[in-house]
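Title: Prediction job returns without error message
Component: structure pipeline
Severity: low
Priority: P3
Assignee: unassigned

Description:
Job completed but the reporter wants confirmation the result is attached to the right record. Sequence as submitted:
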Amino acid sequence: MSGVAPGVRQFGAGPLSRAAALVHTLLVVELLLVATTLPGLVPLALLGRDASNLPLVAVCLVPVGPALSAALYTLCHQRLDLTDLQPATVFWRGYRTNLGGVLRLWVPVLLWLTVLAVSLANRAAVGLPPWWTVLLVLVAVGVTLGGANALMIVTLFRFRTRDVLRLALHFLVRTPGVPIGTAVLLVAAAGITAVFSDAVLALLGSVLVLALLRIGAPMIDTIRRDFTA
């Protein structure tokens, strides 16, 4: 027999308990995000704001991909139940499980964006025409938004790398609200960095990841319904 009377809510199932569980999960994920990205963020903070440092910036950002993936995994899989909170365990499980797949996508995305950024930074020196500059900007936006889709897909599903890329590009068109929402989120992140600092952005990392997960929900639900058994 169950020890809970009918109609009586169990401890940890109410809205206040779920809110407390979410806050706890976000705080733990934030600490782990900072810890796992620190090897790249420390040298990044020491780099000068010069175009010649862009390749070094890309190297410093390599640890960010697996960390973001683990945060997405945790916020998607952690049950908001105060009696069963293990966000750190879920984070490290997601980090280990997805490390290889994430790096196979994250590193090429960083490489592409670095090449595009260097080209744009030196457009006057090489005499790029305005139409070519616009084209490079559009390609950079496409790579960024497609990379965000791919990061969510490789984190939450088990597909081959080429299938992840196809789905990421496919959903740029199929669910336009997802890339638009992601673009708005990235603009907000850039605004936070410009107005405050990189440190403030890092401290809001788990909240931004949660927002990305909410934005990507239509794509995630569609993939789960149409592309998985």
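Comment from assignee: result matches the submitted record. The chain has one domain: 15-226.
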